[in-house]
Predict the structure.
Amino acid sequence: MFERIISLIGTEKLAKIQKQRVLIVGLGGVGGIAAETLVRSGIKYLTIIDGDTFAASNLNRQVLSFTDNIGQSKVEVGKKYLQNINPDCQIEVIDAFLTDNNQDLLKEYDYIIDACDTLNTKLLLIKYAKKKNSKIITALGMGKKLDPSLVKITTLDQTYNDPLAKNLRLLVKKNHLDGSIPVVFSPEKPINKEQEIASMMPVPATAGIYLASFVINDIIK
């Protein structure tokens, strides 16, 4: 299944990709696309964490969401979906929301993709990556935005126009952590100030591809 990838980067670099262990936290509109992109790109060892179930409101943007899996666990659906792409992919599922109280569920990872929405969990993952010497990339706010061409990879200390990024910057500074954490970010201003996080597929899907692209390109240099 990887003949087109081998034609692009060669067998040695594909072998490097296949050896890496990746953690994805959050399997929604951003994380689901990131997971699919990784598996289609050759990642064989993947851990996915999410305690949520699919709802009808997910159908407009989440690649793993279908009418026949509403109410089902996102990670269990995700595992089946991803192994239908590559049955040799070894996927560990953790059907829970990651918090300080259950972070002992985490293991050793080469890369961590933070695709969750919770500020405290983002901080937890940054600290964990530093402690374990894992590489991490964090997705910032992708709701209330419409222009996928503005999504980019940068560092947390270079972000603006994003309330989630602002709060994370403050939290990182308060905890005396390095602010040059790789992030996927859009400078597009939120299109409204409603409390509900409105969203369509193009922006979060683009963010998910960028997260996976960061990992793949870092592996193959």
The helical segments are 3-9, 11-19, 31-40, 74-85, 119-132, 163-174, 202-220. The CA atoms of residues 51 and 96 lie 4 Å apart. The first helix runs from residue 3 to 9. The mean pLDDT is 97.
